[in-house]
Design goal:
By secondary structure, the chain is mostly helical. It is 85% helix and 0% strand. This is DUF5658 domain-containing protein.
């Protein structure tokens, strides 16, 4: 019974760490890392394997490239990094709040 809340906490924590780390790496590498992400995504997937691959990629790495595409792709080099740094800071604050919320909810289950 005590194992399920720990699994939930650790899964959410790992996913949020991976998302924030990949978004922070986009600050450093910019277009190069974004293009690598775009090359890994299969557009208009036709079978279950391509759909599963897209799901895994977007769950693990999707927030950083999404923010980069929507907010920073059309800007110059310096402003692009500043905008991404601001969004990554907001992501980190949001994930800390979400993790505290999940930790408190799962502590009630124990």
């Amino acid at each position: 019974m005590f194992l399920v809340p720990e699994i939930i906490k650790n899964t959410v924590l790992i996913l949020s760490i991976v998302q924030c780390t990949y978004a922070a790496c986009i600050i450093l590498l910019g277009d190069t890392l974004y293009e690598q992400f775009e090359d890994g995504v299969v557009y208009n997937p036709k079978n279950i394997f391509s759909k599963t691959w897209n799901f895994v990629i977007f769950v693990l790495l999707g927030i950083g490239p999404y923010i980069y595409r929507r907010k920073a792709l059309h800007l110059n080099w310096f402003v692009k990094r500043a905008v991404m740094a601001w969004w990554v800071l907001l992501m980190i604050i949001g994930t800390v709040m979400i993790n505290f919320l999940i930790f408190s909810i799962t502590s009630l289950l124990q």
